[in-house]
Every structure is written in C-alpha cells, then in structure tokens.
Write a structure and sequence with these properties.
This is Small ribosomal subunit protein uS9. One of its GO terms (molecular function) is RNA binding. It is a single chain. By secondary structure, the protein is of the alpha+beta class. It has one domain: Ribosomal Protein S5, domain 2 (2-Layer Sandwich), CATH 3.30.230.10. It contains four helices and five strands. The protein has a five-stranded mixed sheet with strand order 1-2-5-3-4. Strand 1 and strand 2 form a beta hairpin. Helix 2 packs parallel to helix 3. The N and C termini lie far apart (73 Å).
C-alpha cells in the first residue's frame, strides 16, 4: 500500500495525515503521540477511529499539525485519520460515519464586534 494523504481541520487547527501499512506507530510533528499530547483523554480521542475499526496496530501514521490548542489539534487529527481510513478501505465508512468521526465540526470563534467588549458582550450600560 502506498502512503495515503488526508487533511483534518477543527477551529484553527490543520492536521495533515500520512497513513501507511505498519506496526501502529503514530508520530505527530516528529515526536511520539504520548509526548506531544499531555493528556490521556486526548490520546484516546486521537485513537478513536482506529479503535472503531479495530486496526490499532495495522497502520503507521505520520501527522503534521499546526494552529490552535491541544483539543482542536486532537480533533483535527481524529478527522484526518478517519478520512484516511475511508480512502484505504471504503467499507470502514459506515461505522466511522455512525460514530460521527467523518463530520467536520464547523464551529469557529465568533469575531469581536466594535462597540462591544467581546463578540456579544456589551460594555456596562449606564442610564445616567
């Protein structure tokens, strides 16, 4: 199998996934998954698509990710891995889609408006 490319995005994070046959090594920005993400919960979030199709130790994954924070990056990586797995084998698609791993979360931070403190919060109103 050749290398499969996929892209995942979430908020301002962009993850580029390079998936190939292997022993289950996952490296993010040339470091191991466990070193890159501090929390065990985030690591399990990244591995969810592989656990869903029971292929934890079948593919080597190299990931380049930039932008955002840990959570946004992890969700971008999860989407990218799910998309790459669908390219490898289209029969994975129904189970991944059912769990919602193929849905791009389109929510972004709302921009700050002038005359307001934040996106929607106004300055304190003084009647007199």
């Amino acid at each position: 199998m050749e290398i499969i490319n996929a892209v995942g995005r979430r908020k301002t994070s962009i993850a580029r996934i390079y998936l190939s046959n292997g022993k289950g090594d996952i490296s993010i920005n040339k470091t191991s998954l466990e070193k890159y993400f501090p929390s065990e919960a985030i690591i399990t979030l990244v591995k969810q698509p592989l656990q869903q199709i029971e292929a934890i130790d079948q593919y080597d994954i190299k990931i380049n990710v930039k932008g955002g924070g840990f959570k946004g990056q992890a969700e971008a990586v999860r989407l990218g891995i799910a998309r790459a797995l669908c390219e490898v084998n289209p029969s994975f698609r129904p189970s991944l889609k059912k769990e919602g791993f193929l849905t791009r979360d389109s929510r972004m931070v709302e921009r700050k408006k002038y005359g307001h403190k934040k996106a929607r919060k106004s300055f304190q109103f003084s009647k007199r």
